[in-house]
């Protein structure tokens, strides 16, 4: 049967359109989605299935993690270590400016703040970002020197700072939020022969005596609501003499200690200042630590079972 030229033209045009539609459909299914960013629900302690950046404390009990040796009832509970999934200079699509890229005063991580944005006269002296600490080396994860805390802890600290300012003082911070990788660095250091700063930080102790009494295998700092601090004169910004320095491991660092020791003497006046600081912090929602006069943790910390690992920037 003969087919007219017009019908032939219509047939081939229809065939061409069908072929074009098929190719277009296949191409659309091949869109690269590798740039999508997964954001964990920190508040509910949830993470995507098979996410390698979340470590369950019950299934990784053989992996040591460290911090200040503060007794913790939650050490036996399920916990996670959170790390950002976002490469450098890439921001997530979280609402309310919740990003893991850190320009200026944007939050350093969901639920956390740079404390100086709430307390402008805060003095930042993060010792683990320097070599002026018990290791004598910069700790892993300290890429900057800005003090970070969970928002509730920062707001409570602001209230304490307001009271201390009325008394003539400003706050100096030695450590606050501490990444888990820094704690792991402490553990590695403890197994080495490096004792370069022994005379200044643990002159009466052997290195193996520091764990877990003074440096624990899980750190309250890593949960984001613990702070190591002192006070300075509001006008001169000079540190108030507390009779001993930050991270001295031994009885002279106990808030109630009075007496002479290898680096000096803690007098009744020093004890009075330590107790004044302790009372102010307790009044504003923090609990003290009986082995370190400088160490305070928010009583109602928002992430009691989560150890974070985003870097300090």
Molecular structure report:
This protein has 313 residues and is α+β, with helices and mostly antiparallel strands. It is 23% helix and 16% strand. A 5-stranded mixed β-sheet has the order 4-6-8-12-11, covered by helices on one side. α2 packs across α5.
Secondary-structure map:
Blueprint: H1 5-28, E1 67-68, E2 80-82, E3 112-114, E4 123-124, E5 148-150, H2 151-166, E6 169-175, H3 180-190, H4 198-201, E7 215-216, E8 226-233, E9 259-261, E10 264-266, H5 268-283, E11 286-289, E12 292-298, E13 306-308
Parallel strand pairs: 2-13, 4-6
Antiparallel strand pairs: 1-7, 3-5, 6-8, 8-12, 9-10, 11-12
Helix pairs in contact: 2-5
Tags for this model:
313 residues; two-stranded antiparallel sheet; 23% helix; 5 helices; 5-stranded mixed sheet; alpha+beta
Task: List low-pLDDT spans.
Answer: 23-67, 70-81, 83-103
In whole angstroms, the N-to-C terminal distance is: 80 Å
Structural class: alpha+beta
Mean pLDDT: 78
The profile of the biggest β sheet is:
5 strands, mixed
What is the β-strand count? 13
Shape: globular
């Amino acid at each position: 049967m003969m087919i007219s030229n017009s019908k032939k033209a219509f047939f081939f045009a229809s065939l061409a359109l069908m072929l074009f539609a098929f190719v277009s459909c296949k191409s659309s299914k091949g869109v690269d989605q590798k740039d999508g960013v997964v954001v964990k629900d920190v508040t509910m302690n949830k993470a995507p299935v098979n996410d390698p950046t979340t470590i369950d404390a019950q299934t990784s009990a053989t992996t040591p993690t460290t911090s200040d040796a503060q007794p913790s009832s939650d050490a036996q509970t399920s916990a996670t270590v959170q790390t950002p999934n976002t490469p450098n200079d890439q921001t997530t699509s979280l609402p309310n400016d919740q990003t893991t890229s850190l320009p200026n005063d944007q939050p350093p991580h969901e639920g956390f703040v740079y404390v100086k944005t709430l307390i402008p006269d805060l003095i930042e002296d993060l010792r683990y970002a320097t070599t002026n600490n018990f290791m004598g080396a910069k700790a892993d994860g300290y890429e900057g020197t800005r003090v970070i805390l969970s928002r509730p802890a920062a707001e409570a600290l602001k209230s304490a700072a307001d009271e201390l300012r009325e008394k003539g003082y400003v706050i100096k911070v030695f450590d606050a939020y501490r990444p888990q990788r820094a704690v792991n660095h402490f553990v590695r250091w403890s197994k080495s022969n490096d004792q370069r700063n022994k005379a200044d930080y643990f002159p009466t102790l052997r290195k193996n005596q520091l764990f877990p009494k003074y440096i624990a295998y899980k750190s309250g700092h890593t949960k984001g609501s613990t702070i190591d601090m002192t006070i300075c004169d509001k006008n001169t910004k000079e540190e108030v003499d507390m009779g001993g320095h930050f991270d001295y491991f031994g009885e002279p660092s106990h808030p109630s200690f009075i007496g002479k020791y290898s680096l000096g003497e803690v007098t009744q006046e020093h004890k009075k200042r330590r107790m004044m600081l302790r009372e102010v912090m307790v009044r504003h929602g923090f609990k003290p630590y009986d082995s370190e006069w400088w160490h305070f943790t928010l009583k109602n910390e928002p992430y009691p079972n989560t150890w974070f690992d985003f870097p300090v920037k």
